Amino acid sequence: MAIRTRNKVSPNFNMSSMTDIVFLLLIFFMLTSTLVSPNALKLLLPNSSSKTLAPQTVSVSITEALDYYVDKEQVPFANLEMRILEKMGNNPDNSIILHVDKSIAVEEAVKVMDIASRNKLKMVLATKPN
Q1: What is the mean pLDDT of residues 10-31?
Q2: CATH of the domain at 76
Q3: Reduced to 3 states, what is the DSSP secondary structure of residue 90?
Q4: Which residues contact 116 (CB under 8 A, 6 or more apart)?
């Protein structure tokens, strides 16, 4: 008398669950990759209705005539980075407040932001209150 088993192992492999996981991962990476912007400058932008001041700050101003001022002292652009670093000192809590005339091209403000980014300094863009 031959004994037969009722349970037979199927040699087929079902790929449907594996494809579901792959599609979910694909959607996840597509969504998260759109949120990453590696070339953005990190700025602290205050609301125009409130005042945000760091304990000790350095003020950098750009006038309509493209004159650069560091704490009310006119500085040529070539010496701007050196003068900002002198004023900042070694205190990591210091920050730069950037005052830019509204008629100035964004390119001029980005030059100062680039100086702060290169030296890993905190920067606040000043706005006019409502």
Answers
A1: 86
A2: 3.30.420.270
A3: coil
A4: 84, 96, 122, 123
Q: Which residue has the higher pLDDT, 96 or 14?
A: 96
Task: Tell me, yes or no, whether 22 lies in a domain.
Answer: no
Round the CA-based radius of gyration of the chain to a whole number and report it. Answer: 29
Residues in the chain: 130
Domain assignment of residue 93, given as a range: 57-125
Q: Identify the DSSP state of 103.
A: T
- Residue 20: its H or E element: helix 16-35
| Dihedral class, residue 23 (left if φ above 0, else alpha if ψ from -120 to 50, else beta) | alpha
pLDDT 10s digits, 55-96? 557 888 888 888 888 888 889 999 998 998 888 877 777 788
What whole-number distance in Å separates Cα of residue 19 and Cα of residue 15? 6
Confidence of residue 25 (pLDDT cuts 50, 70, 90): very high
Is residue 99 classed as helix, strand or coil in its secondary structure?
strand
Which has more confidence, 126 or 79?
Answer: 79
